Amino acid sequence: MTSVDDRRQRELVRDRFTRTAEVFGDFVLRDRAAEAERLAGFVAAASNDRAVDLACGPGTLALCFARRVRWVCGLDLTPAILARALGTAQSERLANLSFSLGDAQSLPFADETLDLAVTSYSLHHIPDPARVIREMARVVGRGGRVGVLDIRVPESRQAAEISNRIERLRDPSHTRSLARSEFEKLFAAAGLRVTAAEVEEHPRSFDHWMHVAGWHRGDKAYEDTRRLIESTISQDLAGFHPQYAAPDPARPRQAPDIRMVNTALYIAGSKP
Fold first, then answer.
1. Do 199 and 255 reside in the same domain of the chain?
2. Are 22 and 88 in contact (CB under 8 A)?
3. Cα angle: 185, vertex 73, 30; to 5 degrees
4. What is the C-alpha to C-alpha distance for residues 240 and 166, in angstroms, rounded to an integer?
5. If you average pLDDT over residues 35-45, what whole number do you get?
6. Can you give the pLDDT at residue 28?
7. Nearest C-alpha neighbor of 213 from the set 133, 153, 124
8. Are 50 and 115 in contact (CB under 8 A)?
């Protein structure tokens, strides 16, 4: 991706998470807290660790890790979402947690100065995920741990392509979700030994999935995304496992919601 493309991607990410700072923040801080705890277990977060949560969003990981480690920094491109994270940290009186504007592709830490580097649901927004994993590996010392939680697409190239088309219709800041084998290759290329990897399925409502992205019925992005995901129902072509929900008795003329699944991958590695 050229520097112009990179700048454009940053603008898309900032726009997306500025518009949805409240609704997205409410959702992830409520519904992804258990995922944050689970990733903390995967990387064996400990009381003397120094950590970075890169592309931290509203602080899903940083807030969780602050209760487990000595110090954690949350880093993100978007001022609005950082303000949301800071407000939550202050309300919870977490003194070992700081937030800073920054780019996950160029971390503001010297080599081997941290114990943990983690990120959640960020790599599919970033132009060069390999660079991010290399940066995470660079800033942790020997024996340091790197943990990633993100969307996982099927290994089938066709299914992955359709899945990413659906994601980009919903969210123009989406670049590309990776298959499990791709995550494993990125870790290996960065000199990390994979210590744990696990897939987890999260049932979702299509309407709520779109709401969190800032769209509602009647919006072009909603209707375009719905048409494409509906086209995959009969053969589950994109791995979302979509099915029509029961009609809403209060709205008998309205098309039913769609039940679907987001598949996430937890992957952790250590630096030899």
1. no
2. no
3. 85
4. 10
5. 97
6. 85
7. 124
8. yes
163 belongs to a structural domain = no
For residue range 133-155, list pLDDT tens digits in order. 999 999 999 999 999 999 999 99
**195 lies in some domain:** yes
* 59, 90, 108, 213, 258 from 87: Cα distances, Å: 10, 5, 23, 22, 34
SS3 225: helix
Average pLDDT over residues 87-91: 93
Which segments of the chain does DSSP mark as H helices, in order?
3-19, 21-31, 33-42, 60-65, 79-91, 129-139, 157-170, 180-189, 206-212, 220-230
Q: For the whole prediction, is pTM greater than 0.90?
A: yes
Domain residue limits at 141: 3-155+172-203+262-270
Burial of 218 (0-12, 13-18, 19+ CB in 10 A): exposed
Q: What is the pLDDT of residues 161-210, one digit of tens each?
A: 999 999 999 999 999 999 999 999 999 999 999 999 999 999 999 999 99
Tokens of 40: 């903390």
How is residue 122 written in tokens? 């960020």
Q: Is residue 162 part of a domain?
A: no
pLDDT (mean) for 110-118: 98
Dist. CA 138–CA 130, nearest whole Å: 12
43 class by beta-carbon count within 10 Å (0-12 exposed, 13-18 middle, 19+ buried): buried
Determine the longest span between alpha carbons in the chain, in angstroms: 61
